[in-house]
Amino acid sequence: MVQFDPNVRMGSPSSLPYDPDQDAAEKRDIRKKYRALEKRTGEQLRPQDIRAAELVEQVEEADELFQKVKNPTEATLDSTVLRNVSSISAQKARAMKLGSAAFDIDDFVSKLAIFMGGRHELADDASELDDIGDSVMDWEKVGRRALAKSRRVPVMGFMLGPLSVEQKKRTTVKRAKLEKSKEEERRPQEIKEEDIQRSENETTKNVIKIREILEESGSVNLFRFVINPNDFAQSVENIFYLSFLIRDGLCALEIDDNGEPIIFLCEAPSAQDRADGVTCHQIVMEFDMAIWKRAIEVFEITESMIPQRPAAKTRLGGKWYG
Fold this sequence. Notes:
By secondary structure, this protein is mainly alpha-helical. The chain contains ten helices and seven strands. Helix 1 packs antiparallel against helix 2, helix 1 packs parallel to helix 3 and helix 2 runs antiparallel to helix 3. The protein is elongated and about 130 Å long.
């Protein structure tokens, strides 16, 4: 859009690309003409409302105005006009159909029917064509006209395609089954009722044993009673069995004046006692190996009051587990 004049020397006032001191009246005149061009090439304009020659004229007018532009405001108006012209040109290019726009299918069918003698053309002032149902269309006439334009030999067509094509038969493929060797098969071991030796209830048996020992010893320190200095696991089991006695109200736990936990046997509360408001309380006791070692050291426990129990074993499927 910018054109250079070889006769104009660089540095002269007319060749300056930017001139903040340009005459105000000249700038107003340039803006007025640019806005008129912008209105003629607005985005709301439809491509069919303007011809390509008119777009060329508008580009040439913008080129002439751009020779006088020396400020950003006018240059922005010039870019707006160029953008609008480019947009309309692109839309017109997309709308072109290279000769297919003049082809009307309905008009072609009507003229083809007239050519074959199926219709008669009315006068120029008529707007429709009358169908003549009694006349027979001469398709051979159209065929002879088409043969003059093509050297292809006419052939017969079939609805199911060429006769030489045979319909494919679907074959069923049988897949061989994967047979595993019986030697490689492994089944889980079958366990019968008689294979499991049912032992007597160890929990009930041990709870009764601990009650008998506590009855013989009387009031005793909790840790001295339940801790086995040689077996941490059995110490935990002793606390577990003792908890059943406390739950049923057969054993009580108190803190004496020295701050030691003391346990002793007591009578279980009757129904009348519970009706009078007597309740049993249980606590969650933390007991790990560190507490077990510390209790042995503090209370100088060297021997367990509850005898060491042998490890329990269970026979399952001919094997012992313990």
